[in-house]
Amino acid sequence: LDLDTAKEELEEFIPHVREMSDSSIRKMAGRDLTRFKNFKKQGIAIKFGRFSQKENDQIRKNVKEFLSLTGIENAEKLLFTSRYPEEKETINRLKAEFLFCGKIAEGIPRPWRLIYYRARKIFDPNNYKGRYTKEEKEKLKKYYAIHGNDWKKISEMMSRSNLSVAMKYSEIKSINYGPWTKEETQKLMHAVEDVIRKRSKLEAEKSSSEKSRRNLSIDREKLYQKLPWTEIETKVGTRYWRQCKQKWNSILTSKMTKGQELYKGTKGLQAKINLIKRLYEMKVEDANEVNWEELSNAIGDVPRAYVQAKFYKLKVSCVPLWQRKTF
């Protein structure tokens, strides 16, 4: 397919495809378009967001079958081939010969790239090593000072995954862990506004005047869906991205509920009952299949992150051995 046709056909499955780079679109057209069309014929929608337990199990099954098919020794060699330079050529040949891309994604209605990254996270032995010690944190700061954002190199030096070292550094470089100051809150609100303006392609309307700030009108979902938190973290400057996300959801909840306490007293008990009842009525098998947006009015006019947090707290505090139970 030529690039324009690829964009047009992929847009049916990936609404934001035109925001992607040309090279990513070409790869997706080659790896995913036929798969997406086959899923459509089966009436299966393409998914994003958190992977369900069923999808994780399918990835494990696909990897196990591919190892059996090719004779590659283990999942680490398959998914982290660069760690085994002496076997790299042989492994890559086997991956090409037995169509690794198609086999790893079999039965999972998601873009191949997301499936591959998820598989790497599941099977990376460096990804489950517990909390960082004080010594490790100091090493991480030292390595970052030398190598900057070369997380691959730093991860090899620390025997931790790329994602783990990147996220941990983002956390430990944060200056403030106490209550938010008024100045920090204002920085956060302006940072979110800036990224929303950028995303909405409203640069031409940017102005420092208060009138312009008041007149910015957008769909409410854009206030809390898929915001670039690492970019917002940089703009705030004193807080870790997860702190920014939590604080922003707190601000939104307060504004959307006009400051009312929806989750306390008799009203709070009723909200919990409503939430449990609605979750039960959805008949889903995994928490990742829940439409949290649809559920938000079980508690009140709140962001979906607020509902998810309340359900998590309810589960942890009221269900013994909840980790061992199905949804």
UniProtKB/TrEMBL annotation:
A Pfam family found in this protein is: Myb_DNA-bind_6
Lineage, top-rank taxon, reads Eukaryota
What are the residue boundaries of the Myb-like domain, all occurrences included? 124-169, 172-252
Q: Which Gene3D superfamilies match?
A: Homeodomain-like (1.10.10.60)
The GO cellular component terms are: nucleolus
Output the InterPro entries linked to this UniProt entry: Homeodomain-like_sf, SANT/Myb, TTF1-like
| GO MF, one example | chromatin binding
Q: Which GO terms describe its biological process?
A: termination of RNA polymerase I transcription
- What PANTHER family would the database entry show? TRANSCRIPTION TERMINATION FACTOR 1
Protein name, per record: TTF1 factor
